[in-house]
């Protein structure tokens, strides 16, 4: 399983760096978070580039084996509508519980990033230079910057995002509150 996880991370890094080479000149955003240091919500997430559509027929299979869980296989028959996004998460900021329309490959470009999936409440921390896969769909999760100082900078490549869908869909307030209690985290 370790070999599969390394392979998935290698593919994630390659996809992300290839996208960065093409789209890096477009700038970045600040993700909406629980609150910034001034107590105000962050800016809306806006992509660096995209949606862009593959000129060829492209399908993607990703095998992701998170520690403590079995390997999940994600088959995306149409990976069209690719979006590349760079976002900064302020120190101590917590993202709301949310989902994404399709899978995404994320690289921690600077700092640390802690990812918490609603299905097991395990806190998985990724360091600068590490990558992770979010399967998208009904995978509800939150994440936060565990650092006391400095932004965490993330670069994500979203695959299969329809033109009319948002990159991030928050869960409703009642579900978020229940997940906060279940997982022992405060996203409000």
What's the short version?
The chain has 188 residues and is of the alpha+beta class. It has helices spanning 2-23, 173-183, and strands spanning 29-30, 49-52, 60-64, 72-76, 82-89, 98-99, 104-110, 112-117, 123-127, 131-134, 141-144, 152-158, 169-170.
Biggest pleated sheet: 6 strands, mixed
Q: What is the level 1 CATH name? A: Mainly Beta
Low-confidence stretches: 1-30, 34-44
Shape category: globular
SS-based structural class? Answer: alpha+beta
* Terminal CA distance: 36 Å
String of helices and strands = HEEEEEEEEEEEEEH
On the 0-100 scale, what is the average pLDDT? Answer: 78
**Beta-strand residue percentage:** 25-35%
- What count of helical segments does DSSP give? 2
The appropriate CATH architecture is Sandwich
CATH superfamily: Jelly Rolls
Q: Enter the CATH topology name.
A: Jelly Rolls
Beta strands, count: 13
What integer value in Å does the Rg equal?
A: 16 Å
Give an overview in words.
The chain is α+β, with helices and mostly antiparallel strands. It has one domain: Jelly Rolls. The protein has 2 helices and 13 strands. It has helices spanning 2-23, 173-183, and strands at residues 29-30, 49-52, 60-64, 72-76, 82-89, 98-99, 104-110, 112-117, 123-127, 131-134, 141-144, 152-158, 169-170. Strands 1, 2, 5, 7, 10 and 12 form a 6-stranded mixed sheet that branches. A 3-stranded antiparallel sheet has the order 9-8-11, with no helix packed on it. Strands 3-4 form a two-stranded antiparallel sheet. β3 and β4 (72-76) form a beta hairpin. The protein is globular, with a radius of gyration of 16 Å. The model is unreliable at 1-30 and 34-44 (pLDDT under 50).
